[in-house]
C-alpha cells in the first residue's frame, strides 16, 4: 500500500526489476509482466492516473533563434569553402526547418537514391540564400559525390565520418538527432530537460502558421493527415517568449 500513490512509470520500473528476478527463478513459468492480474492493475492505474502537463507541453521555442544561429555561423558565401562536416550539419538543420521533418525517422533515414520514397515535397529557390534548402542541398551533394562512389546503392544522404574517405558510410538516425541537439544548445535553446531534437518539428511548423501559412497547407507540406488533429494536438503550440539578449 505504501506505493499506491506512486506513478505508473515508477511502478513499472519496480515491475521490470521483479520480472527479471522472477524469470531467473522460474524460467518455465509465464513471464511476470504477462500475468493477468498484473496487466489489469497497470491498465487500471493508467486509466485513473492524471498527470498535470507542464507549461512546456503547450509551448515551443522560437525558430528565429535557430535560423539566426545558422545564418551567422554558416553564411551562404562559405558553402564552397567550409568543411564538409559543417556543410552537412547546416544542410540537416535547414532540411528539418524547411520540411518539418523528424530528425530521426525522416531526415535521419533519407537515402541518397530512394525511388520508393512515399513522402514528397516541392521546393523552389529562396531569396535568402543562407536558408535556401535547394542551394544548400545542391552544394552538399556536389561536394560529396567523390565520397559516394564506393558506398552501397542504399546508403543514406547524410554520412558518418564525412571527413575520412576511408571510414565514410551511412549515418545513424541517432547521430543526426545528436548533431541537431548540439546546435540547438549552442543557439541558446534549453535542451537539458525541456526541448529535444524532435521539438524542431513543432517549432518550424508553428512558425509557418505564425507567418500566415494556413493550417491545411502546413499539414500538406509536412505530410500530416488533413482529417486527423495530430498537428493541432502535438505540434501547433504557443511560441515561448524570447528573453532579451545582453549586449
UniProtKB/TrEMBL annotation:
Q: Which UniProt keywords apply?
A: DNA recombination
The question of whether Metal-binding is a record keyword is answered with: no
Record GO terms (molecular function): DNA binding
- Single GO BP term: DNA recombination
Which InterPro entries does this entry report, sorted A to Z? DNA_brk_join_enz, Integrase-like_cat_sf
Family matches, as PANTHER family: CORE-BINDING (CB) DOMAIN-CONTAINING PROTEIN, PHAGE_INTEGRASE DOMAIN-CONTAINING PROTEIN
Q: What is this protein called?
A: Tyr recombinase domain-containing protein
Please name the source species: Circinella minor
Amino acid at each position: 500500500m505504501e506505493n499506491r500513490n506512486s506513478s505508473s512509470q515508477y511502478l513499472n520500473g519496480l515491475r521490470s526489476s521483479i520480472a527479471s528476478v522472477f524469470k531467473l527463478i522460474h524460467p518455465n513459468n509465464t513471464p511476470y509482466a504477462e500475468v493477468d492480474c498484473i496487466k489489469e492493475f497497470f491498465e487500471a492505474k493508467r486509466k485513473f492516473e492524471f498527470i498535470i502537463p507542464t507549461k512546456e507541453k503547450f509551448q515551443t521555442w522560437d525558430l528565429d533563434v535557430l535560423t539566426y544561429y545558422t545564418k551567422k555561423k554558416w553564411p551562404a558565401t562559405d558553402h564552397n569553402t567550409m568543411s564538409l562536416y559543417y556543410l552537412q550539419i547546416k544542410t540537416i538543420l535547414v532540411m528539418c526547418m524547411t520540411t518539418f521533418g523528424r530528425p530521426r525517422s525522416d531526415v535521419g533515414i533519407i537515402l541518397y537514391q530512394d525511388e520508393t520514397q512515399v513522402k514528397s515535397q516541392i521546393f523552389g529557390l529562396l531569396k535568402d540564400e543562407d536558408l535556401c534548402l535547394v542551394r544548400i542541398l545542391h552544394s552538399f551533394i556536389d561536394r560529396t559525390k567523390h565520397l559516394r562512389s564506393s558506398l552501397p546503392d542504399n546508403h543514406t544522404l547524410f554520412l558518418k565520418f564525412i571527413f575520412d574517405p576511408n571510414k565514410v558510410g551511412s549515418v545513424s538516425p541517432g547521430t543526426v538527432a545528436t548533431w541537431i541537439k548540439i546546435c540547438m544548445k549552442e543557439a541558446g535553446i534549453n535542451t537539458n530537460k525541456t526541448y529535444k531534437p524532435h521539438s524542431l518539428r513543432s517549432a518550424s511548423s508553428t512558425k509557418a502558421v505564425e507567418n500566415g501559412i494556413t493550417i491545411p497547407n502546413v499539414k500538406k507540406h509536412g505530410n500530416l493527415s488533413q482529417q486527423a488533429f495530430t498537428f493541432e494536438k502535438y505540434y501547433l503550440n504557443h511560441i515561448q517568449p524570447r528573453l532579451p539578449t545582453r549586449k
